[in-house]
Amino acid sequence: MVSAKWGDxxxxxxxxxxxxxILDHFQNPRRMGTLPEATHTLGLHNPTCGDxxxxxxxxxxxxxxxxxxxxxxxxISMASASMLGDAVVGKPVAQATEVARGFVDFLTxxxxxxxxxxxxxxxxxxxxxxxxVKCATxxxxxxxxxxxxxxxxAEPH
Amino acid sequence: MSLPSTTTAPSWTEVAGAFPALRQTxxxxxxxxxxxxxxxxxxxxxxxxxSEYYRDYPSNVHRSVHTLAGRATEAYxxxxxxxxxxxxxxxxxxxxxxxxxxxxxxxxxxxxxxHLQPGDEILLTPAEHHSNLVPWQQAARATGARLxxxxxxxxxxxxxxxxxxxxxxxxxxxTVAHVSNVLGTENPIRQVVExxxxxxxxxxxxxxxxxxxxxxxxxxxxVDFFAxxxxxxxxxxxxxxxxxxxxxxxxxxxxxxxxxxxxEVDRERATWADVPYRFEGGTPNVAGAIGLAAAVQFLExxxxxxxxxxxxxxxxxxxxxxxxxxxxxxxGSLANRQAVVAFNLAGVHPHDVAQVLDSLGIAVRAGHHxxxxxxxxxxxxxxxxxxxxxxxxxxxVDRLVDGLREVGRxxxx
Lengths: 157, 413
Known about the structure:
The complex is a heterodimer. Chain A has helices at residues 4-10, 14-17, 20-27, 75-88, 93-108, 133-148; strands at residues 40-46, 51-60, 63-72. By secondary structure, chain A is of the alpha+beta class. A three-stranded antiparallel β-sheet of chain A has the order 1-2-3, covered by helices on one side. In chain A, a hairpin with a 2-residue loop joins β2 and β3 (63-72). Chain B is an alpha/beta fold. In chain B, 39% of the residues lie in helices and 16% in strands. Chain B contains 14 helices and 17 strands. A seven-stranded mixed β-sheet of chain B has the order 4-10-9-8-7-5-6, sandwiched between helices. A four-stranded antiparallel β-sheet of chain B has the order 13-14-17-16, covered by helices on one side.
């Protein structure tokens, strides 16, 4: 009655999704806010829930000098946006884009070889909850689109 | 409304036993299904009626003289009569559509675009489902008419005072939901109709959340148009209906042109079949109509009055037991509450509420419920929503309340 794909999910433990580090980022988000001097900014909607996350970036000398995110969302989308800032600040723009692209690949491609940097790896549990992939990748897609809009493109996958 | 004759109505345990989807565990727990406002579960009799059509007489309707086609046509037209009777009207006033959305679009495109003039007003509320809002936005754009909103009461309900005050000499059409899909409030349609007809305005009612739960007579309500869906009332997906008062249907243009809907076609032009067939261009959803008729028969065997009381009691109990939970906000008041309870827990996003509940085998909806203007009015982004139906029990309310305690524990750690 239940397909193999959903059968896999039935084995998933809620604690694999809501790791302590995720709840910590959700309850104590890092770099939440806006950048008045942002060079790149982009907001994205999650149409299923109406949630919105906007990413502000300050790019200086080809590096992501600063990052802020704003909006509202579930624990997964907010924690992911918070973790993304830790992972990209100080990085060259191409590397920042690669972090976001690699993270999306990590969650959506079953054959992915990616290991996301820093706390982002804790979101691996999302792979067992396909309905939440959109939440986890919202800030990452916003960052990629923001940088792409100014000529820095994510590699097509 | 027709009620079971001499046979005894089934017990609630027997009713629940008629729904095979309930015989499963989800994430290791027996399923508690609290998402009927999105779509209901289907009883075996409906599944069997659909299967029987596909297995034994899968023929097109109104076309051929062979035996199977005759049987299919007879079943399809019997379904129309049964569904029409269920909402207190006759077969010729009932158009089969794919659901509420198509029904509203048929009125917005087929009637409103033909009758509205620039400057005319469409009166509605901010609580409408997107399917009873976006078609009117489009009709307004196409005709130069404008949307006028009757603001809700502080509790988020339809305010008759606000509605009365919103009428102008240009009000041509009034549209409201019979029951709100978020607040669960039953709106006083007869009063709305009385008021609107005094202003010569046409009344369109979105009955998606009322027909599954309440005894409804469109004739007693006096509405001009009434839209509803089959899948929320134990029927298949992809079938629904539009009731139209006979004169209103006759002044409505078809949306779909082609086979089935014509009287005569020559090289240059065509004439339309009679109402309601002119609105059912193409091969209709025969299996869906037959399944919907089986659903109606099933609901009638249980009794609509009993179902209304049952769903309402469960929703009221849930609302009363959720409200005192730490950080809980329950939207809408208990007055006129039907089967829906929308709520939030402070500091926990509805997605996370629904995820934890799902891990406990409890299915609820989380999101904006296709009612973003209402979310904005309530000053929230989204909410969780538990909705009840004839197969739910008080144990389901217990499981929901226990589950929400678990949500609090999970996110309070």
